[in-house]
Amino acid sequence: MTAANQRSLVPETNIERDQALCESLFTALRDATSDGIGITRESFGAGESLALDIVESAAREAGLETERDAGANLVVTLRGTDAELPFVACGSHLDSVPQGGNFDGGAGVIAGLAILAGLKRDNFVPRRTLKLFGLRGEESAWFGKAYMGSSALFGRLTPDDLASPHAVSGRPLSDCMGDVGADIDRIARGEPLLDSRRIAAWIELHIEQGPVLVARDLPIGIVTGIRGNVRHRTVECVGEAGHSGAVPRWLRRDAVFAVAELITHLDRHWRTLLERGRDLVITSGVMGTDSTEHAIARIPGSVKFSFEARSQSQETLEAFYDLFISECASIGDDRGVEFKLDRRLQSSPATMDPGWVDRLRTAARELGLPDETIPSGAGHDAAVFANAGIPSAMIFVRNENGSHNPFEAMKIDDFMKGVAVMRKVLAEAIT
Ligand code: GLV
Ligand code: MN
Ligand code: MN
Fold it and tell me: Could you read off the pLDDT of 101-123 as tens digits, one per residue?
């Protein structure tokens, strides 16, 4: 039988039923994990567990096999007839930032479930197994480290990662993972929980978290690569507190002025690197003096802030990080302050697989949809799968108002277009 004939065996799906399932799941996730402002699904915490439970019970209702893997992620399986063939995997994460939006992560899991449930409903038995992963722990908001759930799958969580304290409770990541059922002994040994050679591909649908698809009036985009990052959760600039009226400029060791100078210098370096054609974004998203001691009339003796640089290029990340370290040293000398850095965290940039990018673009064109490519500024679990040697690809869906806020706004019509493209490539790959 030719490939074309085999493909024609994949039944047409019932789009209305798929859409109804997706809408009911988006509503159920929002209702269950609303915090009154946005939604909160803490990594390895209650909201995330609730989200996994909701998706799992929908999968069971659809007659699909479900299990929790050794990383406590949800795995839904549509079993193929040839168990020897590496399986195709899809999915995304079910945690969120605090007061986040309902679509970051959740959209990719719901897309996968609609596809598996639709194929099951039509009694379609593939040759190759298709698995959906509802991953835990993608967001760095809770432990500083990103991609914890997917990193655990490939034995990539270090003892330092597992000791990372929770942003609110201070409990180590290992305890929180253990609480939700992860096999911490295997994870701490760095044992891969999945054999990457058994995975033919990772396909992830996600909302675009920037403004590009909206600005270009495109419902979907095909991702070419994912920025990596280097971060510090906390840098402390330590100077000397003093009376704001009594200490002259030349005797001050003002931590706020030192940090302001550092940020201004980093901004200048950033602009220069952009002018040289480098890809780079810089953020200091957390910053403050200590509210228990700060005052209008007190020279601040300490400021704490976070540092993050992201780029498609590891070389650019390292070059900018070196500039950051040397600026800390020279501003420290000039102003009599010291910059104390906590552990450096990093995620590598990733390239999406050109063959799968082509398949997604072709499927989009065949469905009468735009096939334009777009790089991802935000991080995604697909980067971990790609860097584990698994051919990986992503579909972005247009979303208004950005992300990591409660105002994410994805239209269901755009989402269903992304689902249609994903369904087409997955169905072809497993037939
Ligand atoms: C993921 O949410 C990121 O911070 O890029
Ligand atoms: Mn996110
Ligand atoms: Mn995400």
Answer: 999 999 999 999 999 999 999 99
Ligand number with the minimum distance to the CA of 94:
3
Question: Ligand 1: distance of its center to the CA of 373 in Å?
Answer: 20
Which pLDDT band holds residue 389 (cuts at 50, 70, 90)? Answer: very high
CA 102–ligand 1 middle distance (angstroms): 14
Which CATH number is 3-226+350-430 given? 3.40.630.10
User: Tokens 């498609």 belong to which residue?
Assistant: 312
CATH T-level topology, domain 229-347:
Alpha-Beta Plaits (3.30.70)
Residue boundaries of the structural domains of the chain: 3-226+350-430, 229-347
Nearest residue (by CA) to ligand 1, atom 1, is: 379
Ligand 1 site, residue 139, Cβ cutoff 6 A = yes
Q: Is the pTM of this model over 0.85?
A: yes
- CA proximity to 389, closest of 107, 156, 113: 156
Distance between CA atoms of 253 and 303, rounded to whole angstroms? 12
- Is the C-beta atom of 381 inside 6 A of ligand 1? no
